[in-house]
Amino acid sequence: MVDASTVKELRERTGAGMMDCKKALVETNGDIEKAIEYLREKGLAAAAKKAGRIAAEGLIGTYVSDDKKVGAIVEINCETDFVAKNQEFIDFVNSMAKLIVDRKLDTLEQLLETDYNGMKVREALSSLIAKIGENMAIRRFEKFVEDNGAIVSYIHGGGRIGTLVQLESSVVNDELIELGKDIAMQIAAMNPLYVKESDVPNEYIEKEREILKVQAMNEGKKPEVVEKMIEGRLKKQLKEICLLDQLFVKDGERTVGKLLSDKSKEMGTEISVKRFVRFEKGEGIQKKEDNFVEEVMSQIKK
């Protein structure tokens, strides 16, 4: 006979439903540790059934160490926005970002095999899938390390967009961190692709030149003015995709490059953006589009 207190303890430790806990204890003759193993096995099986569903919602999470020297950004996907607002899912996302920093992880495979709350991350994710009832996936993460400067992060829209910025500076203080936050917000809002023009690959520039040339010819422009038009339009485009050439969103009177220059003079040290990363949830994932008519017809045929 399984008593109620044991069922309650198992439920608290696993998060599984009451009836599932009771069944697990019956199957394992009341051994709570074996019951946990039993539920985890069932959780893994349940998770596998959900693995085919498209997970394009989710959250971006970030974590930066107290000394601002190491930071991580991670994207974890789920199927619906409703689950993305679930506190347990939110806590899991933030825990993964911290785990990446604390355990000095570099690859997704390392993360999945890392110990977390008495199990592997891979198993913890499967248990969460079984408990909440949606497919989930740890899609990607980036980690920055900066000994001579600081890492700063920013989360926008409750986790819809996240950015991580690596600043190089001999002085690390509140003023630098505040500057980093402004730049991280800029990246979230304006989505630059590169730090500066010299970072843009030649292949990208040549491809854009070809596209702009065809556009100009289609507009009926004379050959002698086409080249000037191409260079003018290309220059404008590069300013839009390079962080340092973008107008600073907070005042619009100076570029981000000028902002860095001004702050460098104020603080008496050279400040530069070494690199950045911007994650937007679900970008590049093809979402499933349900066809209502087909769905109704399939039900009728049944």
What key phrases describe this protein's structure?
302 residues, alpha+beta, Helicase, Ruva Protein, domain 3, Tetrahydropterin Synthase, Chain A, GTP Cyclohydrolase I, Chain A, domain 1, 3 domains, 3-stranded antiparallel sheet, 12 helices, 50% helix, elongated, disordered C terminus, elongation factor, UBA-like_sf
Give the arrangement of secondary structure elements.
Blueprint lengths: L3 H11 L3 H10 L4 H19 L6 E8 L5 E9 L2 H4 L2 H16 L5 H5 L2 E2 L2 E2 H12 L4 E9 L3 E8 L4 E8 L5 H17 L11 H17 L4 H19 L14 H12 L4 E9 L11 H10 L1
Antiparallel strand pairs: 1-2, 2-5, 3-4, 6-7, 7-8
Structural features, described:
By secondary structure, the chain is an alpha+beta fold. It has twelve helices and eight strands. The protein has helices at residues 4-14, 18-27, 32-50, 81-84, 87-102, 108-112, 121-132, 174-190, 202-218, 223-241, 256-267, 292-301, and strands at 57-64, 70-78, 115-116, 119-120, 137-145, 149-156, 161-168, 272-280. The strands form three sheets. Strands 1-2-5 form a three-stranded antiparallel beta sheet. The longest helix is centred in the first third of the chain and has 19 residues, at 32-50. It is elongated, with a radius of gyration of 25 Å. The protein starts with a helix and ends with a helix.
